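Pilot study result, target chain (175 residues):
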Amino acid sequence: MYSVALGGHLDTPWLAIEPIRVGRTSTTANEADKVFVVCAEDRPFARVDLYQHRDEYHGFEAHAIWSHYLVIGSGHRVHFIDLRDRSTSEFELDSYFGNLSAGEARLLVASAQRLFSFDRDGVLEWRSAMLGIDGVVVESVTATEIVGAGEWDPPGGWQSFRLSATSGVEILDPA
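Predicted structure:
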């Protein structure tokens, strides 16, 4: 069983662990913007150093252990760190990151404008149409549908949506 925490002041054993580096590849700074510490069965397992892209909005950030990944949403990206082999992948969103909704079958990632669904292997299943311009929230998820709202007219101009959980296509109410 894995657990993750945002690291503050690091000391032994975390300083002795070679970090997994994610984020911007060219940096003049030696210090990561954020450090995540992962434990396996309450023992130090991995350290992940996140280097943020300076030109991106970082208003919302989240992290979670899901499937066999540490998933980090920050800026305009989602990072997948495979805890089995420490490999990494990065997915660039269409706008700023909003939130994560982890379910058994899929991980939903909300940006300011859309929802993205990833399967248990971290592969993109689908990308929704535009659901808002300044925020998308997921209110409930079942095996067949996703209910949420997107903000079209800030502040407060939210419009509800219903999507197919398997395709991301909007479910229209019968007329």
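One observation from the pilot: The first strand starts at residue 2 and ends at 6. A full batch analysis is planned for the follow-on phase.
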